[in-house]
């Protein structure tokens, strides 16, 4: 199992948690981005700068990998491929919930495109960081059996 991260818009605190978890568990973690992003140093962690992070992750991942992304359309493509996707707030995207997530995302986009203000989610804070850390640990433990 590897961890692949859509790092372009991933909060720094989340990137740090991923890097620490990968190092502690000796798992390869690759951060894909179009722009330079700060990644904690470790022999288990790498940064891959690409023109299109979504497509690079699609090309690179395989069933059994864990992808971390806040991009719902990317998550939908990955879930269809049998890949587990976790967002930066600790939600695991599954076949059961990805359709609803896409519908919500698309409805908000239509509202914005019509020139109206779509309701925004709560800002990203310490509670979200803790929820993500717990979800990542749970997912990695479940997959490793330890």
Strands in their spatial order, largest beta sheet: 3-2-1-4-5-6
Number of E strands: 6
**Which consecutive residue ranges, at least 5 long each, have pLDDT under 50?**
none
The second-level CATH architecture is 3-Layer(aba) Sandwich
Proportion of residues in extended strands: 15-25%
CATH class (first level) name: Alpha Beta
**Mean pLDDT, as a whole number?**
88
Secondary structural class: alpha/beta
Order of helices and strands: EHEEHEHEEHH
How many helical elements?
5
Query: What is the overall silhouette?
Result: globular
Rg computed from alpha carbons, rounded to a whole number of angstroms: 15 Å
Distance between the termini: 14 Å
The main sheet comes to: 6 strands, mixed
> Helix fraction?
40-55%
């Amino acid at each position: 199992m590897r961890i692949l991260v859509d790092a372009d818009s991933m909060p720094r605190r989340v990137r740090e948690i991923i890097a620490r978890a990968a190092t502690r568990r000796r798992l390869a973690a690759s951060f894909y981005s179009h722009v330079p992003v700060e990644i904690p140093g470790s022999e288990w962690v790498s940064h891959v700068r690409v023109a299109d992070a979504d497509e690079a992750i699609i090309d690179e991942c395989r069933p059994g990998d864990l992808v971390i992304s806040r991009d719902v359309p990317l998550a939908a493509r990955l879930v269809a491929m049998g890949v587990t996707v976790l967002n930066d707030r600790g939600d695991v995207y599954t076949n059961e919930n990805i359709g609803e997530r896409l519908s919500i995302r698309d409805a908000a986009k239509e509202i914005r495109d019509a020139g109206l203000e779509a309701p925004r989610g709560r800002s990203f804070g310490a509670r979200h960081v803790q929820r993500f850390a717990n979800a990542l640990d749970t997912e990695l433990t479940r997959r490793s059996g330890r």
